User: Fold this.
Amino acid sequence: MNNSSRIISLSEIKIQAQILLKKINSSDHKLKADALAKIAGYLKSINLELAAEDIQLKHCLGYFAADYGFANWANYKFYFEHSQLSKFIPQGGFFNQWFSNYREAKAILKASGGYLLPYQQQFFICERGYIEYLGLNPDDENWRKIAYNWVEPENLISWQELNQAYANLKQ
Assistant:
């Protein structure tokens, strides 16, 4: 994988996946070999062994989602389509750790704790005071259920409840 440093939009990732699939299906042997080499590690990681002609767009989308640090394409897509918090405007006066790379932010969250939140195509880890500032309860059990990760929550129902609570605050 290419260890991408920033999350890209759904339309960009779809275009990249289509390009990758075209290369996989190319009659140009070098293009095809390079594309297959690119996706081979991803396919192995999800326990799939496919011939080139069996690779579909969904596999290419999954490759890029994984490359950006998401468990799968569905998580990547769901995040972009439903997150209310990705639209907020951050305020100063809080100690936040900022990241352009989701994988790095996720690793720091796991190691140090906090709340992992998105901002446009970046990510930050904040403390409970910032969650309170947003109007959310940092002690809400749903935070634990989503593993304090707004970007790729472990429990989508809990994330939806938090997301709705935040959306209700903005009304």
About this structure: Helices lie at 10-24, 29-45, 57-67, 73-82, 102-112, 128-134, 141-145, 156-169. DSSP finds eight helices and three strands in the chain.
